[in-house]
Design a protein that fits this description.
The chain is an alpha+beta fold. It folds into two domains: 10-53, no CATH class; 120-259, MucB/RseB, C-terminal domain (Phosphorylase Kinase, domain 1), CATH 3.30.200.100. It contains ten helices and six strands. It has helices spanning 10-17, 23-33, 37-48, 53-63, 66-73, 87-99, 109-115, 120-132, 147-161, 245-258; strands at residues 176-185, 188-197, 201-209, 215-222, 225-231, 235-241. It has a six-stranded antiparallel sheet, sandwiched between helices. A hairpin with a 2-residue loop joins strand 4 and strand 5. Helix 1 packs across helix 3 (37-48) and helix 4 (53-63) packs parallel to helix 6 (87-99).
Length: 261
């Protein structure tokens, strides 16, 4: 997953749009725009965003205890900064509001996901989503493994994660099982089962060890994909893909029942 020219984050692309990157960083992103369609499409989406974020949250910003937050965040006084206003600067101010306990309306779920201080469980999902967003149908092209080959691949999870899974337990109706592999997140093993849906493309079930305890399924959106996530007594799970969220929840519920500890 390490790359000499990694995929830029939304924050980096927004900074590029606002002209806030160094020449070196701007040149790196411009090089990617000519070679990576996903980066170009994401930049176009962010460039066309027309939501009135500032007006929507102006009252929240006004309510924030500015002096205390400036001290906490090490903010340079406005007079010492160039007289400019950018989306990135605004999101930083909104993040300060959230630190102070000023909660934004849930209708702005996209902003909330970006500025809310992530807990451990959301951080690994963010990393996985960024990786899966690079998958295309071609990534998973080729024949699907046999049931015996699937069982052999899944058996590797038992040694590293203490997780015994059968092909039947992780099968998704109408969706091809393509491969099961072990990755690593934060020096810990991460199990990934990749599928290919004939209509919406790549889909993945990812699993890590977890001691947060039982959590019922919840949903979120990341990188244009739907995510259903939950945990049992020993592991945290996420199912991610572009399938409509109601169907994703049904698929996730079947997997949850079949993998309950």
């Amino acid at each position: 997953m390490n790359d000499k020219n990694p995929i830029p984050t939304d924050e980096e692309l927004t900074a590029y749009i606002d002209g806030e990157l160094s020449e070196i960083e701007a040149s790196r992103i411009e090089a990617l725009l000519g070679s990576n369609e996903r980066v170009a499409a994401r930049l176009e989406f962010l460039s066309q965003s027309s939501l009135a974020f500032k007006q929507a949250f102006e009252s929240l910003l006004a309510a924030a205890p500015k002096a205390e937050l400036d001290a906490m965040l090490g903010i340079v006084p406005v007079a010492a900064k160039p007289a400019r206003s950018s989306r990135r600067g605004f999101l930083g101010a909104l993040a300060a509001c959230l630190v102070a306990g000023v909660v934004a309306d849930r209708a702005f779920i996209g902003i909330r996901n970006r500025v809310h201080a992530p807990d451990e469980s959301s951080e690994w999902r963010a990393i996985v989503a960024e990786y899966i967003a690079l998958y295309t149908a071609d990534t998973l092209a080729g024949p699907s493994p046999s049931d015996d080959a699937q069982a052999e691949q899944l058996a590797r999870f038992d040694d590293k994660l203490g997780l015994s899974l059968s092909p039947e337990a992780v099968s998704l109706p109408g969706i091809e099982f393509k491969r099961a592999q072990l990755l690593q997140y934060d020096d810990k093993p991460l199990a990934q089962i990749a599928y290919l849906d004939p209509e919406t493309g790549p889909l993945a079930l990812c699993i890590v060890r977890s001691d947060v305890g039982m959590k019922e399924p919840d949903v979120e959106g990341r990188h244009g994909m739907n995510v259903v996530y939950w945990s049992n007594a020993t592991h945290a799970f996420m199912l991610i893909g572009r399938i409509p969220i109601d169907l994703m929840q049904e698929l996730a519920e079947d997997v949850r029942k079949n993998t309950s500890a």
